[in-house]
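Posting for a labmate who doesn't have an account.
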Amino acid sequence: MKLKDNDIVKKLIFLGIPTELYAVFGSGPMFAHEIRSLEDLSDLDIVIMPGAWNYLDFDKAKMDDVWGCNKLILEDGEIEIHDGWGPGEWDIEALIREAEIIDDIPFVQLKKVLEWKKMMGRDKDIEHTKQIEKFFE
């Protein structure tokens, strides 16, 4: 299965946000690099530039009190769009500007995902960290 064949990825593309205004973060880059199988993809976490809200219904965004940013949940939770990221301090504009384009979709660099996964430290993040480190070997 290719990225663009996945139903969730199709929904992201359908939103019509210009690729220079967003990047897929969270575990999404692991799917793009085939570290995880696309059949296991249940949602996409997106970081956006402030101007990208023009393409979305910002009125439905809610403040994410944990990360201190706006978050918009679409497609019954399959797509989460954030204008910030946490934990830690992240330069959203740099994450997007330096994103890797895979199959015409911008993804936050895998090394940044690894950094974030280590900060998160949940059981699944520990496993994902091992998988990403193995990918880099």
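Reply:
Got it, the structure tokens are right above this. The two ends are 25 Å apart (CA to CA).
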